[in-house]
Design goal:
By secondary structure, this protein is an alpha/beta fold. 29% of the residues lie in helices and 21% in strands. The longest helix is centred in the first third of the chain and has 16 residues.
């Protein structure tokens, strides 16, 4: 069975109502990203950071997967499919995809501040004073700027085995995620779906300049032919 590796970014979930990570001036929901997405920001104002992610978590619980999420899940009927996502949401899981790697963490999980291994499912607000069983403060299970990306090596190995690469809704400007395109085998087909694509058509790359819900439908049609 051929292996499709799918890299997804914020544009994948935008049509579900989730806002993209940050706008052009570097702000995220009115905050400098370093205030709410860095270890230094958490150390300086942990209550601000926790409340910021509490709002993101609540928003996630109020939205649903879009048709692009469901269309990708349906590809598992005919292909081995692995999704490597930069997104913090669980919309791929809710749509039925079964093999997902979250590069940058997950909004519905938390962990102690001194460990990356004791990961806890979490759907309610996270507050100062919420501790693990050893008395350590819990923090969002998010890879912040300046932190290592624990799942990167796994993602690279997955890309090494791709027969087809699909990239959806990402600017290809956030590293190291953007570097994953360099780890797929030579000469495999690559499909890039984005209304404002950062890549151009080449012999190997087919650009579908559409939003995710429309572009994924086109992709599925190509793959069936």
């Amino acid at each position: 069975m051929r292996h499709i590796v799918i890299l997804t970014g914020a544009g994948m979930s935008a049509e579900s109502g989730l806002k993209t990570f940050r706008d052009a001036n570097g702000l995220w929901e009115g905050h400098d990203v370093m205030e709410v997405a860095s270890p230094e920001g958490f150390a300086a104002n942990p209550e601000l950071v926790l409340e910021f992610y509490n709002q993101r978590r609540q928003q996630l619980l109020e939205v649903q997967p879009n048709t692009a999420h469901y269309d990708l899940a349906a590809l598992e009927q005919d292909y081995k499919v692995t999704i490597v996502t930069q997104n913090l949401d669980d919309l791929h899981e809710r749509a039925g995809s079964s093999n997902i790697v979250h590069l940058h963490g997950e909004l519905l999980k938390v962990r102690p501040i001194n460990s990356i291994n004791n990961i806890i499912h979490w759907t309610k607000p996270l507050l100062l004073g919420d501790l693990d069983t050893n008395g350590n403060q819990l923090r969002p299970h998010i890879v912040w700027f300046g932190e290592a990306v624990p799942m990167l090596d796994k993602a690279i190995k997955i890309c090494n085995t791709a027969d087809i690469l699909v990239i959806i809704g990402t600017s290809m400007q956030v590293y190291p995620a953007a570097s994953l395109i360099n780890y797929v085998p030579d000469n495999i087909p690559i499909y890039f779906i984005d209304p404002n694509p950062a890549l151009s058509n080449t012999k190997a790359i087919s650009v579908i300049a559409k939003k995710a819900t429309e572009g994924v439908k086109d992709l599925v049609s190509f793959l069936k032919n």
